[in-house]
Write a structure and sequence with these properties.
The protein has 223 residues and is α/β, with parallel strands linked by helices. It has one domain: Rossmann fold (3-Layer(aba) Sandwich). Helices cover 51% and strands 17% of the residues. It is built from nine helices and eight strands. The strands form two sheets. Strands 2-6-1-7-8 form a five-stranded parallel beta sheet, sandwiched between helices. Strands 3-4-5 form a three-stranded antiparallel beta sheet. Helix 2 packs across helix 4. The longest helix has 17 residues. The radius of gyration is 17 Å and the shape is globular. The two termini are 16 Å apart. One cytidine-5'-diphosphate binds next to helix 2, helix 4 and helix 8. It is found in: Cytoplasm. It is an enzyme of class 2 (transferase). It comes from Shouchella miscanthi. One of its GO terms (molecular function) is kinase activity. It catalyses: CMP + ATP = CDP + ADP; dCMP + ATP = dCDP + ADP.
């Protein structure tokens, strides 16, 4: 039996992880947060003072380390060598460094292989930047989620405030724009809409509307 895969790509704050998790839950599929994998490697490197400009050192870290993703009620618990780093991977420092770490081809190839293996074993929803274009070019359903940068920054800002943290809307917007530009302009597997992806502009859609729209698309493609 071959697995059924849903690919969700798009820029930061488009709602990918929130919606991918909900869609996976409704379908009884595995949710694979590919961004968490690049974030975990970035966090592991920062914690060990490994130079993030040194691709070879990062590859060694990736090969020798043990990165695990475990589904949890809030999304995904992320472990590096058995240590729970779920919170650490969302820090500002990781936000500012992850696009550099994820620009290296050898690192992407390693991650892609892991992601393809997971997706081949189980029905799964994967979210990221290159799922529909590179990781799973034959995914059963491909979605490109977007929203205006103002709306995406506002969502991240609200998220921070709801956690009781201080937040600077303009700084978040700058960070998102910078990360989107780096992710879109890297040479290998950039952030890009697949030609055969369905585009959903979620600027004026709430989470449940987006989830329902994706479930409808899945239904259309599963007959
Ligand atoms: O949640 P957010 O959109 O802010 O980011 P994420 O999905 O956790 O991804 C963090 C970073 O990982 C992105 O900005 C990309 O640099 C990288 N990434 C990637 O290159 N390819 C993927 N498939 C997923 C993430
Ligand atoms: O994974 P990605 O960076 O694409 O976005 P996310 O982390 O899923 O969503 C960023 C924030 O926007 C979360 O706090 C979501 O609850 C919120 N959101 C929203 O308000 N409306 C949507 N249609 C989608 C997400």
């Amino acid at each position: 039996m071959t697995s059924f895969n849903v690919a969700i790509d798009g820029p930061a704050g488009a709602g990918k992880s929130t919606v991918a998790k909900q869609v996976a839950e409704k379908l009884g599929f595995l949710y694979i947060d590919t961004g968490a994998m690049y974030r975990a490697l970035t966090q592991a490197a920062l914690a060990r003072q490994i130079d993030v400009n040194d691709e070879e050192a990062l590859i060694q870290l990736l090969r020798n380390g043990n990165l695990e993703l475990a589904p949890s009620s809030t999304g995904t618990t992320v472990y590096w060598d058995g240590e729970d780093i779920t919170e650490d991977i969302r820090s500002n420092q990781v936000n500012q460094t992850v696009s550099l770490v994820s620009s290296y081809k050898q690192i992407r190839l390693y991650m892609m292989e892991k992601q393809q293996k997971l997706a081949s074993e189980k029905n799964a929803v994967l979210d990221g930047r290159d799922i529909g274009t590179h990781v799973l070019p034959d995914a059963d359903v491909k979605i490109f989620l977007t929203a205006s940068v103002e709306e995406r920054a506002k969502r991240r800002h609200t998220e921070q405030l709801n956690k009781g943290l201080t937040s600077d809307l303009e700084a978040i917007k700058r960070d998102i724009e910078k990360r989107d530009a780096l992710d879109s302009n890297r040479a290998f597997a950039p952030l890009k809409q697949a030609d055969d992806a369905e585009v959903l502009d979620t600027t004026r859609m709430d989470i449940n509307q987006v989830t329902d729209a994706i479930l409808d698309l899945v239904k259309e493609h599963s007959v």
